[in-house]
Design goal:
Elements: H1 8-21, E1 26-32, E2 38-44, E3 55-60, H2 67-82, H3 95-101, E4 102-107, H4 112-117, H5 130-138, E5 153-155, E6 171-172, E7 177-179, H6 188-199, E8 204-211, E9 220-224, H7 233-252, E10 262-263, H8 268-282, E11 287-293, H9 301-321
Parallel strand pairs: 3-4, 3-8, 8-11, 9-10
Antiparallel strand pairs: 1-2, 2-4, 5-7, 6-7, 9-11
Helix pairs in contact: 2-3, 2-9, 7-9
Length: 367
């Protein structure tokens, strides 16, 4: 996988390389975890073009046990910055025109400490069953040996039955405290999002994930915000149209998406985490979640990365073709429609992919 970078050391080295070769096109910001690993927020754009004339995307990867979106972010970032994918191939868009038309921020790995603790670089379903994978994700429960409980925050000094090892989904925020990145405001992810959204408004927030699609023949889906039914109508319309474009792009690439697009189906405590942490963002920004199959021979790692990249590049294309913002002081000037510059996805189809046995569709209780 020449175009795959997801290990924290490799990500850090590539970011340092880009800083030295890409001039003013890349802005690097980071929050350093207690273990010393930087959580990057990487902004790519052409600074010679007024930011007020650009549409803005913020794409992020919350979970360390879902590495394919990290690899996808790094590869698409390479395409935009250098005009080439990490393996040297040509991207499915004109990089210079994307940089002039858009401002794009990637948080490619919101928990590099967790990623570094993973036993493998990617999950292909050949080494770990899903039960074993989930025990790596949350840690093995000392009483059952299966995965430990899911919480937004815990303190190792206060837990009676700590997992035998800390699950890689959890991010250290102090010597003793851990959080799940997309469920607690003290995580590096939510601290980045707070700062970045206070600085500017975004046309799109793309939340990149993976799940297992157990007992299903599907391998990707798009999920709407938990409180979708309570969002302003203009955001509902934008999110639904955007989600449909991603699903259609997956279908054109030969993937097997769930066609129905619905809000995140959590209830009870898990739903309340999202209401508490994401509620203000749901009211101000268009947000969708991309889910791609993880830990399954039916969707090998290269295809996991590909499907995540399609979610990103489809979003770029949509932003290039949508209504253009008007900058202050530029009355009457609007950025030209550059959608034709983004050609159709130049990706191989998935016609030869190994298919899993047909079964009931995912129950929307994504892990």
């Amino acid at each position: 996988m020449d175009a795959w970078i997801s290990r924290p050391g490799d990500v850090q080295a590539k970011v340092a390389e880009w800083e030295g070769t890409c001039g003013g096109l890349l802005e690097v910001e980071s929050i350093v975890q207690p273990t010393g690993r930087p959580v990057f927020a990487l902004t790519v754009t052409d600074p010679s073009v007024d930011e007020g004339l650009k549409r803005k995307l913020l794409a992020f990867v919350p979970h360390a046990h879902e590495p394919a979106p990290t690899a996808a972010c790094m590869n698409v970032l390479s395409m935009i910055l250098t005009g080439k994918a990490l393996d040297g191939t040509k991207p499915p868009f004109d990089a210079e025109k994307v940089r002039k038309a858009l401002l794009v921020i990637f948080i490619p790995d919101a928990n590099p400490d967790g990623t570094a603790r993973a036993p493998v670089e990617c999950w292909d379903g050949s080494q770990y069953t899903n039960e074993e994978f989930w025990a790596w994700m949350r840690g093995p429960d000392p009483l059952t040996g299966k995965m430990w409980k899911r919480v937004d925050l815990f303190d190792v000094r206060k837990e009676e039955n700590l997992p035998e090892r800390i699950g890689i989904v959890y991010e250290p925020i102090s010597e003793f405290e851990y959080v799940e990145p997309n469920r607690h405001p003290r995580s590096s992810l939510m601290r980045h999002l707070k700062r970045l959204t206070e600085r500017r408004r975004y046309d799109a927030l793309l939340d990149l994930h993976q799940t297992e699609f157990e007992n299903s023949d599907r391998n990707c889906m798009v999920i709407l915000p938990t409180t979708y039914d309570e969002q302003p109508p203009h955001l509902q319309r934008e999110e639904m149209a955007w989600a449909r474009e991603i699903v259609e792009a997956w279908q054109q690439a030969g993937a097997r998406p769930i066609e129905e697009i619905r809000p995140l189906g959590y209830t009870g405590e898990q739903r309340q985490y999202f209401v508490n942490v994401w509620g203000p963002y749901y009211q101000q920004h268009a947000i969708v979640t991309s889910e791609v199959q993880n830990n399954s021979p039916a969707t090998p790692p290269a295809q996991q990365q590909l499907l995540s990249e399609i979610a990103i590049t489809t979003t770029l294309r949509r932003l290039m073709g949508g209504p253009q913002p008007q900058a202050r002081g530029h009355a009457g000037r609007r950025r030209p429609n550059l959608a034709p510059c983004l050609a159709s996805n130049q990706y191989p189809t998935a016609s030869r992919r190994q298919r899993s046995a047909a079964g009931p569709r995912n129950a929307w209780g994504v892990r």
